[in-house]
Amino acid sequence: xxxRTPRTVLDRLRTPRRFPGFxxxxxxxxxxxxxxxxxxxxxxxxxAAVEVTAANDYCGGQCSxxxxxxxxxxxxxxxxxxxxAFGTQPEHAEDQLAPYANLAKGYPSLTNTTINNFFNxxxxxxxxxxxxxxxxxxxxxxxxxxxxKKTGVPHITGTxxxxxxxxxxxxxxxxxxxxxxxxxxxxRGQLTAFAGGAPSNQGLEQEFWxxxxxxxxxxxxxxxxxxxxxxxxxxxxxxDVNAYxxxxxxxxxxxxxxxYFPGEYVLTGHKDSITNAGTIDHFKTTDLVALASVIGxxxxxxxxxxxNNAISLLAAQQKYGVEQGTQVWESFxxxxxxxxxxxxxxxxxxxxxxxxxxxxxxxxxxxSVTREELVYDRTGSAATADATGASTTAATTALxxxxxxxxxxxxxxxxxxxxxxxxxxFGPQTGYFAPQLLMLQEIQGPGLSARGASFAGLSMYVxxxxxxxxxxxxxxxxxxxxxxxxxxxxxxxxHYLYRGTCTAMEKIEQKxxxxxxxxxxxxxxxxxxxxxxxxxxxxxxxxxxxxxKVAYTTLRSSFLHEADSIIGFxxxxxxxxxxxxxxxxxxxxxINYTFNWFYADSExxxxxxxxxxxxxxxxxxxxxxxxxRSAYEWRNWNPTTNTSDYTPASAHPHSTDxxxxxxxxxxxxxxxxxxxxxxxxxxxxxLLDDRVKxxxxxGGVTRAxxxxxxxxxxxxxxxxxxxxxxxxxxxxSSTVTDSTAAAAVSKLQTWxxxxxxxxxxxxxxKAYANADAIRLLDAWWPLLVKAEFAPGLGTDLYTAFTANxxxxxxxxxxxxxxxxxxxxxxxxxxxxxxxKDIRAVLGESVQGPLARTYxxxxxxxxxxxxxxxxxxxxxxxxxAQVYPxxxxxxxxDQWCADSIVQRxxxxxxxxxxxxxxxxxxxxxxxxxSHR
Length: 931
Known about the structure:
The chain is 34% helix and 17% strand. The protein is built from 27 helices and 31 strands. It has an 11-stranded mixed β-sheet with strand order 1-4-5-6-13-14-15-16-24-25-27, covered by helices on one side. A hairpin with a 2-residue loop joins strand 18 and strand 19.
């Protein structure tokens, strides 16, 4: 039934009920004034188009990339209102969304010649007939920004280093000014005062400020220290940042005077659409550090979770006794599971391994742990149930070890490709936003030559992309660089013993207040965020240990070092530095965040795991809190600078020219422990490893074949592909006589035979093939896991373990670290536990088994009864019960429940697309020659 024609402009501008949007309401005068504003910068700023040559490109037209929804992330007020009312899109706002989405049904027939139907040509330069515009920003003669017709990507060419970086800053502001402004305020804990007090905004600023409560002096000190410690490259980085910020500010001034600045500034009350009164604050270099702290926390800070680990260990010991309870806990922890899929196939790289005799542990007294309060003095809408709920979710997310570990990589050596040249398909899985957190650019200037993606506001260098004859990418690695210390309290709750002296904690506060705006109608409110910092980091929990009052703090090796990684990215963009795999590995060693880095040129492939891994005191177990005493501190730790000894580069997992590499946030190498749980026998990394292994065994791998392997894995249901066959073995160990169970088994087997994909019946149908089987498994999985394990573990231990590792992360799940409609799925779940337990029941060989068998107490018939009873219960659940609906989807709409949404961070919204589990930004590369 068609939507009724709205009667007023106001009605047209309201966001549809089931689409989460930026606008909640708008006044008629704002609409009229906005429509009179210019839609694009004045054409006088344009100059004649010029062709950019690409003599330094060694990819031979075989480098491709894609980044949905589109390059243009800025929109004037008029464009926002037109989008909200009629769905029209600004130029280049979503022209990469359809090609990206279409791969889900288009990949089976993919060939090398059709790759760019789904990706962009990522060659250097722009041919003369494809130049859409040419700009000399701020009238400078030393830099030119050329944008291409197809995607609007900026190609920045400078004759001076300063001019090149000025152009990069200007182009970034052209494409992402509003987003950059949002995230500098997130990093400073000031989002609500800037963009409105919606509960989601409250939760977002709290989540990040809890882990990085910096003062302005802290931010500046990080710049000073990074520059001082890096010699000439540090000075160059400072010059680059200053030029970049100058470019941003030049665009702010130009767009303000020309009145083509992002319309969100009007809708949030910062600018007046009629008089142009109000200001858009200039950027400062410290804003970039605040931005970096957000990105690093999201994707590059593995560790934490020690308090939750302690709680579950104590629950296990209470259930089984100390010895057996510890064995049970270790078997679920899977620190070094022999069946785990690995990125580096050979060698051992011990890190954060279990000590033979743990020293200094400070486990809490049972029931004594309370999470440290962050928010105080709530008024107005800050005191609502929605607001306090958002605070709880933010705190849980900030303190878990199950961080957003996304992104994947498939890299094949030239020994196994059709051309003899290495091939890579890789990229970061950074979620889906409008505008996107990442942005594309090409940058060519003195000491700079690269094309690819960078986080908005940090694009002085390409962070993930290609150089002249090499390409690189990263996945989140998650090794533990965060430790929890128990500081003993003295005098009161805000003093602690530091090396024998009663020392006051440092109080850091951020006070925020907001009022309703056109963009966010949340009622007025305010609160104070208050963090207590110690030499051992910010306080995260309170507890007692052996009856003594303590505060648990979190110490992260990258804390106060958010700016340090700039040197590594500078090196990656320097063609005179990176000339081969050894140079690449040297460059990424300067990145202190926890990432897996991959490299390919026309001759070699390489891998390196980055991060400042602290050297722990002998006997310290990184899994649990330890006493804040000198004997248990990181070796040669300096609390003033938060520096210590770090493991040498040779101790980090690394490799060159392995037959193939895969990564989907799986275990890096043998004996290398990651902080998050779940590196066991079944991991989503297996979906890549199984497919690439077959390709390599057959030989003659092509770009199309490797891309198809990625795309096929992106539609796979991990539970179905790797666990369901054994579940059905148990169920079918005797004839299934119950008609309901038999029908369910038949549907599941049919789906499994068809490939166990979550894929549409046809492109655009918005209905899954084998929909009933998918609904069955989605309903069955949480039921079977609880019925399989809860009786044996007991309620307390089962609950504690689910706090360490969620039971499920299906695409439709609205729980877990990624939330709903986020694409990324099957990273965190109990699939490995189910797999090992069911194989043990079947009498099959299990390496690294659980400490006991749980399903039916290890008796096949009893286990079968558990599975059949829960399968019947699942079969009785309607689609509306399995997929209950939300603001976007009607109850029972399975496809919609799984679908990917570009989450609005500004005024432009986009339609949802069919689910894929793949990188947000992705490259397909095969270099044909080398310098």
